[in-house]
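Running log. JK asked me to keep both predictions on one page so they can be read side by side. First protein, sequence followed by its tokens:
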Amino acid sequence: MGSTAKRTPSLLAAVDLGSNSFHMVIAREVRGELQVVDRLKERVQLAAGLTEEGMLDEASQERAFATLERFGQRLRGVAPERIRAVGTSALRQARNARLFLREAEERLGHRIEIVSGQEEARLIHAGVAHTIASSRTRHLVIDIGGGSTECIVGRGFEAELCESISMGCVSFSLRFFGDGELSAGRFDKAVLAAKREMLAARHRLLEQGWRSEVGSSGSIGAIDEVVRANGWATSGITLASLQKVRAALEAAGRTDRLSMKGLKSDRHPIFAGGVAILIALFESLGIKRLQYTQAAMREGLLYEQMGRLRHDDIRDFTIRRMSEQYHVDEVQAGRVEALAGFLRAQVEGAWSLESEEASELLAWSARLHEVGLSISHSGYHKHGGYLVEHSEMPGFSRDEQGALAQLIRSHRKSLADKSFEAHSRDEAELLRRLAVLLRLAVLLHRERAEEPVVLAGARARGKTLTLTFQAGWLAAHPLTLADLEGEREELRAIGLKLVFA
């Protein structure tokens, strides 16, 4: 993957593989703000291609691949480190998502992350907040996607509560209006089902409270356009205007007979599902007026990418917060992080660990390797892996969390387990090598002492790793010597030879 095309250094790009449409936004950074230079949107309808068995069918995959190939051509002028591509609800659900991503990444020419519902909500808020950030009062942001609906309560740029609810315009349209009928009975069932879906989130949202409401993305944008075009509300969407939209849909009777001012024909098959969901949200949350903004998750991705490039990465904040929450010994974690980083620098060329991804994963895993001690010392590496894999970690994709959890689980005891098989072959190789370096850094700092480890250097050659200590240091540290001898046997089980002197 990649290209030799000339790249514009100031460009940033975000690709959103939504459950209904794929979006790409390319922007230029101008004095800390984004200036959009290009947008692409194609209706792919991944969610409609999910079979009863939870698999993406061939037709939806082919639509996606063709779209990503076109997107990939446009991305050739953007530096890879300034691109972020994410998948959402349909890819979270698809059982064959991993196989799909292999081909999808090849067509796009860039890595694609699958984000959790909570992370999707946070990114949506990050995009929308830049249009309302002057407000010091709380606001509610709603985004109805193809397969999920995100509701976020925030203040300024901070998302205080993120809720992702499993209902979207595509899934609800297929479920309640799939045969094209738009009757009052169908709408009643759809609205009731949406209210049931959000029961658990409703109390938490109302408990937060807010002063204003904002809607984003396709479904709400389409409803706003219809409301304005027909003169059913002067500013924003109201419940009364939604009821007029519903009445017009019921009067049409069928999706193939729709002729509504302001509604594009390609939105006809999925419009009713979005309307039903929004009516349920208005009635359940007591919304008075919803203002629409074009900003959405893709803008959130761009602003976050700007932060990462300036080394203001929310993932670092998440690691610090988790470390504090579980009372990690930060001094010890710092020792381990420093030594692991030294070891990586020594062997990065021989073991292909030069990437920023490798550096970040090793540093983060070192800082959190003892997070499981808050539960129990016995098996704390397993407890730590579980906490990292299943916690909400803002800024991290599902794959990043899985990789981080793998390193924490693998920093002690056996390395010859089957858990690495959950990763692709190349990723498993990368993680095993990082795990070896983390294990050695932990082992060499077992005494938790201020005394530095006098390691003269490390060298990797093929499947042999050599550690060189200052003369006499190992003899003066018999426990460390015994630990290294034990580690030599552990590494032999995975085909690595550890040499030390």
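And the second, directly underneath as requested:
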Amino acid sequence: MRRDVFQAIADPNRRAIIDLLAAGQMNVNAVAERFDISRPAISKHLRILTECGLVVIVKQGRERYCKAQTVGLKEVRDWTDHFSKYWDNKLNALKNYIEHEQPAHNKRNKH
């Protein structure tokens, strides 16, 4: 089952795991030690992150190493960019309105 990347980042623990792994790969135990939740909960979060392509787990001997695949966050960035541009346009229009309306308002009040 391929999960949705938005589903994965909806949870603050999963976002924190991505942040942690973005700095470099770590074994599963090292990841689990950084959180105040159970090891099974960490494993579940890692499974979800793996299913949506945000984390890759590589087995090396007896250890399992986790690595962030932040390229998977491009979908989120693209989606938020759309709204960022929308709000930039709206705020720029408001700024222009205020800058052009304010001088006219001041002139009316002086008479």
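Observation for JK regarding the second prediction: The two ends are 71 Å apart (CA to CA).
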